[in-house]
Write a structure and sequence with these properties.
Radius of gyration: 21 Å
CATH superfamily of the domain at 16-84: Winged helix-like DNA-binding domain superfamily/Winged helix DNA-binding domain
Largest sheet: 3 strands, antiparallel
Strand content: 5-15%
Order of helices and strands: HHEHHEEH
Length: about 110
Amino acid sequence: MPALPLNDKMVESVAQRFRLLGEPMRLRILQVLEHGEKTVGEIVAALDGNQPNISSHLRALWGAGLLRRRRSGTNARARRGRSWPNWSRSGAGQAPRTPNCGKQGPTTSPKV
């Protein structure tokens, strides 16, 4: 089946998502939140960063819908949104597996 062409709005939306994720600190934040909800302070401590910088990145991720937040007393708590895949279960960072198509090792040509 041929791929559907992307209209201008879709192309801009995809490009915006790539720009958002092009910042390494944002990917680190998402990685910290892989194992569950954390306060902003816990994220700052885990990344050995500074609070204003981390908060700025969190606002960008919240605005894009990649994170969800809730207030807990005086703390803001962050967690990954439903639109983000689970890296640990997706095999990210691993070499793709190539099926051997039923072959039992390398095949050799008979010698003539």
